[in-house]
C-alpha cells in the first residue's frame, strides 16, 4: 500500500502515467466502494462508518505526507483543507453511505452519476460564470429523464423494496461534493498528500459529531462486527480511501475537468454489476435502460462543456 501511494506521488513518474493510473483507480475502485459501504453499514451506522474509515485512512496518509513532503500547512492552507474535507467527505461521502444503507448500492451509484449536473450549475453560478451549452442542457434533461424512469415517484410504493427519501440525501451530498471539488483550485491548499490527509481527518471529525447527534448507540454496534463487515471496512480504508480518494484529490488539481468527470460514466456500471454479482441486488431491464439513458446524458453534459 505504501508503495502504491509512493508511485502516485512520485515526481519522477510522468504526469501522463499518473493521470491514467489515477483515472483507472477512480473508475474501478470508486465503483466498488458502493457495495463496500452497503456491506459495512449492515452493522455499523453510516456516519460512524465514515468517521472511522477516514480517521484511519487520514492518519496513515498524514504520516506518509510528513515523511515525503516534510512541511506543515500554514493557517490559511489548513482551514482551506478542512473546509474542502467537510464538503467532500463530511457531507458528500457520508450522504452516499446513508443512501446505500437504505437503497441498492448500484442504484445509488446511478444517482451519483448525474453529479455533472451539480458541477455545471455551481460552476455557472459561482465560479466560471459560463452558461451551459445546448448540448449540456440536453444531457442534463436526458440524465434526469433516466433517473425519473428509474425512480418514478408516482409509481405505487408497494412496487419498490426501498424508500425514495435517500435520493434527497444524495442530492445534498452531490451538491456539497461538487462545491468542494470546484473550490480546490480557488483556495490556498497544503502540499498534495498532506492536504488529502487533512481533508480526510476533517471529514472524519465532522462525521463523528453528526453520529453522536443522530446515531444513538452507534458505538455498541462494533460488538456485532462480522468477518464480512470487517473485510468491507478494511477494503474501504486501504483501497477506497487511501487509493481511491487520493487519486481523486490529485485529479482535481491536475486533470482537465472534462476528463476528470468521466468517472461518472464508469462508476455506476461497476457498481451495478458488483451489486448484482456479489450483493444479490436485482438488476432489472428497467435499471439497465435507465443506466444507459443516464450515462448517455452524462456523456452529453461532458462533451458539451466549454473548455
UniProtKB/TrEMBL annotation:
Keywords: Membrane, Transmembrane, Transmembrane helix
Pfam family of the protein (one): EamA
UniProt protein name: EamA family transporter
Domain of life: Bacteria
Domain called EamA: residue spans: 22-151, 165-302
Membrane topology, record value: Multi-pass membrane protein
GO cellular component: membrane
Family of this protein: Belongs to the EamA transporter family.
Residue ranges crossing the lipid bilayer per the database entry: 20-37, 43-65, 77-100, 106-127, 134-151, 163-184, 196-214, 234-251, 263-279, 285-304
Organism: Chitinophaga tropicalis
Compartments where located: Membrane
Amino acid at each position: 500500500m505504501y508503495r502504491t501511494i509512493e508511485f502516485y506521488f512520485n515526481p519522477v513518474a510522468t504526469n501522463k502515467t499518473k493521470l491514467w493510473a489515477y483515472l483507472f483507480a477512480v473508475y474501478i475502485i470508486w465503483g466498488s466502494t458502493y457495495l463496500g459501504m452497503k456491506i459495512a453499514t449492515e452493522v455499523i451506522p453510516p456516519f460512524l462508518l465514515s468517521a472511522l474509515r477516514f480517521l484511519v485512512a487520514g492518519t496513515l496518509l498524514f504520516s506518509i505526507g510528513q515523511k515525503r513532503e516534510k512541511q506543515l500547512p500554514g493557517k490559511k492552507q489548513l482551514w482551506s483543507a478542512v473546509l474542502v474535507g467537510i464538503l467532500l467527505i463530511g457531507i458528500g461521502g457520508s450522504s452516499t453511505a446513508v443512501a446505500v444503507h437504505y437503497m441498492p448500492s448500484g442504484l445509488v451509484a446511478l444517482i451519483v452519476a448525474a453529479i455533472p449536473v451539480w458541477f455545471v450549475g455551481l460552476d455557472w453560478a459561482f465560479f466560471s460564470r459560463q452558461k451551459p451549452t445546448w448540448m449540456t442542457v440536453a444531457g442534463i434533461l436526458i440524465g434526469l429523464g433516466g433517473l425519473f424512469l428509474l425512480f418514478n415517484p408516482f409509481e405505487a410504493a408497494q412496487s419498490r423494496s426501498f424508500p425514495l427519501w435517500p435520493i434527497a440525501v444524495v442530492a445534498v451530498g452531490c451538491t456539497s461534493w461538487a462545491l468542494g471539488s470546484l473550490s480546490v483550485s480557488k483556495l490556498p491548499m497544503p502540499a498534495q498528500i498532506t492536504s488529502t490527509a487533512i481533508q480526510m481527518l476533517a471529514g472524519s471529525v465532522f462525521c463523528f459529531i453528526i453520529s453522536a447527534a443522530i446515531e444513538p448507540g452507534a458505538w455498541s454496534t462494533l460488538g456485532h462486527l462480522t468477518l464480512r463487515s470487517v473485510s468491507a471496512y478494511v477494503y474501504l480504508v486501504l483501497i477506497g480511501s487511501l487509493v481511491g480518494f487520493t487519486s481523486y484529490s490529485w485529479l482535481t488539481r491536475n486533470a482537465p475537468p472534462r476528463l476528470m468527470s468521466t468517472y461518472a460514466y464508469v462508476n455506476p456500471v461497476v457498481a451495478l454489476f458488483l451489486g448484482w454479482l456479489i450483493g444479490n441486488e436485482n438488476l432489472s431491464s428497467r435499471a439497465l435502460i435507465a443506466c444507459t439513458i443516464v450515462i448517455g446524458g452524462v456523456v452529453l453534459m461532458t462533451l458539451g462543456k466549454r473548455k
